[in-house]
Amino acid sequence: MTTSSSSSPQPEVPAPDFAALWSSARRLHPIYVELAREFVIDAPPCAALDEQVDSPDRETVEQAQQWLGRMDESIQVHQLRQFLQTSSLVDNDGLIAMLQHFLGNPVRTDSSRDKIDFLLVQYFSQAAPTELDDNWADLAYVAGALEPVLGKVELKAPVWLNALDRVLESAKRCRSLDELLHGGVLEQGRKAKAQAGDLFYMPVALVAFTRFGYLMRRAFFRLMLTDLNNILDGLTELEEKGVETIDCRRAQFSAQEPIVRLRMICQSWKVMFQAEYSSGQPLRMLVDLRASVDAALGHGAEAESSEKAAEATAAAKSEPVKPAAAKGATTKNGPTKSAPVKPATRAAAAGARGGPTTAKADAEVAATPKGKFTVSKEDAAEFEVSAAPEWNPDADSQPGQKK
Q: pTM of whole model > 0.85?
């Protein structure tokens, strides 16, 4: 019996395909230049790419790869997300080129992993039909859609990927955006991705994380739609009761914020939320604004506590209980009295139950009364971002201003 030598030959590393590398670099060059321009990123020139050389030598191709590497380090993942969701420069072929570029890079960082994760979800979201039911978006369906990028994938998923389904179930149980953002669901998803390590790059894992990101994205927008419609319902009810301003200090507005202005701001948030979200300022304001409206209606947590205290005091004195005043709400004739909240719109109610199939949801959104906030599939955005820009509500609510 012979033993193998300790210096057994290593598998040969395939020689780089310089023609393919050059073709990819030329495809990505205008995208990266526009990204740098939009986010004021210092982009050093690359003469060969600027001149679009047709037959470069090896040194030229390597210089182009070095230029792409420097740009990859400079471009943040949230900038890539915002750019791809607001620019028409990148089509499906462009997404495939970017994915192949990142997947082919042997240097694996958290940033490149997050970019791959987002790009796969973005690619699948654009390829998936609008009427796709969540239940149909299983691993086999997602793998088929990603075949132009990943090739044929063996769908024998390891057990550890089951954690993603548990997170999705937790997301389905959320009844408001506040629950999703602050209930630990997003953190569970991030933890699963971080703990995967290099296993994240397994083809079946890439498919599973793409499916996860896509379904989480849809859950997010259903809840956001529910919150915004509930806010608008509440503002309408307050107006019908003669209320003109409410206390919105918890949402970083004034103690007497005009309802008319709040309605305009809610409509402007459709544009704001196209870019980035997770713990960003606008989303925190949305969650807090819903709480402010609920409190003004007498149905917030603080208002309920006040009502219970008033009832207890009145019972002790054997006096009839008076309706609690809507906290922070003012009318022309002074504080208003609480009134039953009107039923939520069909679209909002559907979102609160976790959402119907996409086809039904689209139909219900189309039937939503004028003035309600609606979110189309094309408006969907990724939900994990590293930072969020400061936001000026006055600037965003001005009509005719560029969004």
A: no
